[in-house]
Amino acid sequence: MCGIVGLFLKDEALAPELGSMLSTMLGVMCDRGPDSAGFAVYGNRQDGRLKLTLRGPEGTDFAALAKTLEVAAGGPVAVAPRATHAVIAIPADREEAVRAALAAAAPHIAVVGAGTRMELYKEVGLPSEVARRFHLETMTGSHGIGHTRMATESAVTTDGAHPFSTGIDQCLVHNGSLSNHRTIRRRLEKEGIPVATDNDSEVAAAYLTYRMGEGASLGQALEASLKDLDGFYTFVVGTESGFGVLRDPIACKPAVMAETDRYVAFGSEYRALVDLPGIEDAKVWEPEPAKVYFWDRAA
Amino acid sequence: MNVRSEALKVAPSVLTTHLIDLASASVRDLNTALHALKHDTNETAWRVIHPRGRHAVAVGIDAPISVEIDGNVGYYCGGMNKLATVLVNGNAGVGVAENIMSGFVHVKGDASQAAGATGCGGFLLIDGNASARCGISMKGVDIVVKGSVGHMSAFMAQAGTLTVLGDAGESLGDSIYEARLYVRGSVTSLGADCIEKEMRDEHKAQLHEKLAAAGLAGEVDVSDFKRYGSARTLYHFHVDNVSSY
C-alpha cells in the first residue's frame, strides 16, 4: 500500500513549522505502511558547503568519524548526529575526496543523500517512531517529503526504505510498483548512473536524475517518465528548489493534494492533511492521472 | 460512546438530531449506533462532525434515516447503504456509496475513484467531479455527477444509469452490459463494446426523471445529452472479436 506525504511551503514564515507539520502527516500514514519510513527535508544552505547524510549502525561514533574525514575535507568537519544518521557539512569541492576517505575508513557507513540543502533520514520501524527518533518535529525548511513503506518489491531493510536520493538535492518517494525497472536499471547503468539497491523506486529516482542531468527540468523529467516507466506509481519528488507530483496513466495509487496561499501539500489520503493550518479553506483536489504537477521556488 | 442528542427548537415533540463527534467518538461507535436502528425508528436525524477523512463513515445503514456529515470523508462512505439518506458536506474518498442498495447518497464536493461501484440500487449524487472508475460494475444504481468523471467509468456496467453533466475520460463504458450512460460534455474515448446510441423519447424521459431526482429539474436541457450503451457484440465469445476482449 505505502503512504506518501509532501509539503512545499510558499510562506517562509511557516519554515520553523515544516518538521512538525510533516511529522504529523507521516504519523497519520503509519497504517498505510508500518514497516519502515523516511523523509527528506530541505533546510538551510551553508555557503560553499555540501551536506552529506550518513547512515551507520546503532551506536556509531559520528564525531570520531568526522575527525577522520578532516584531512580529506581540508579542515574541520561539522557533524550533526541524529540517532543512526548524521549530517556532515563539507566544502562542496571536496565531495569526491571525502567520499573516498569515508569508503576507506568506514565502508559500513552509507551516504544516503547529498545536497546543499537536503537532509535525508530513513529507518525500519513504525513511521511515527522513526520520525520521533530523528526529531523530525524540530526540523525547519522550505519543503520536504516523507514515506511510510509496506514492502512489496524488495525486502524490509533500511536500504529499501524511501526516500531515494540519486543526485544532489534530489529525492523521490514512490507508492506502487514498476514493472520494467530491470530494463531501465540496465539502461541507466550503461549511462553511468549506478543504482545501489534492489528497490524499483530507486530506479525511478535514478531515471529522473539521468533526465535532469541531460538538462531537463523536473517537470520535463516527470513528463518523460510517463513514456519510459511502466507500472503503478504515484511519485512525489523534491529538488533543491522544487516539488513535483506524478501519477501513472491509470491512477492506480491514491493521491490528494491541497493548496493554500501558504503551502502545497500532498497526501496518499486526505487524513494526512487534516492538521495543516487553514486546511478547511484550502483547495483540495485529486491529481489527475498522467498529469505532471510541480512547483518551483526559483521560478 | 460519545453520542449526545441535540434538541432542535422546532417542535416540542419528537424531532431530535443525534450528534456524533468523531473527534471523540470512533467510527465503530457511529456505525454501531446506526446499525442498531430498526426500520420503524424515530431516531431519523443524525449529524456527524469532524470526520477528518476517516474511512467507512456511515457504512451499512439499513434504516430510513438521514445522516449529515460535516467535512471530508475517506474511503467507502455510505457503502452498502439501504434506505438512508447520507449527505457529505465535503469531498469523499475512494468508493463512496460502494454497493449501495437503496436510499440516497449526496456528496457536495468531489468524489475520488470508484464512486458508486457495484451499486445495486438507490441514488448517488455528486455535485463536483468524480474520479476514475465512477460506477464501475454498477448493477442498478442511478448516479448523477454534476461535474466530470475520470477514465474507465461505468466499466462492466450492468444496469442503472450514469448521468454526467460535464465530460467523461478515456474508455467510457468499457465492456458495458446494459446500463445507460448520459453525458452532456465530451467523451475522451469509448471503451470496448460501448457505442453512442439514439436518444429516443423514452431515454429523454428517463434522463429527465434522474435530473429531477438530482434537484436539477428545469435547469438542464435533456437534449444536450448523448446516450451511450452496449453494442452487445461481446456478450458471447466470438473469435472475430478476440482483440476487443
UniProtKB/TrEMBL annotation, chain A:
Pfam families: GATase_6. Keywords: Glutamine amidotransferase, Transferase. Signal peptide: none annotated. InterPro entries: GATase_2_dom, Ntn_hydrolases_N. GO terms for molecular function: transferase activity. The keyword Ligase does not apply. Residues 2-298 form the Glutamine amidotransferase type-2 domain. The keyword Transferase applies. This is Glutamine amidotransferase. It comes from Segnochrobactrum spirostomi.
UniProtKB/TrEMBL annotation, chain B:
CDD domains: GXGXG (cd00504). InterPro entries: Glu_synth_asu_C_sf (IPR036485), Glu_synth_lsu_3 (IPR012061). It comes from the Bacteria. One of its GO terms (molecular function) is oxidoreductase activity. This is Protein glxC.
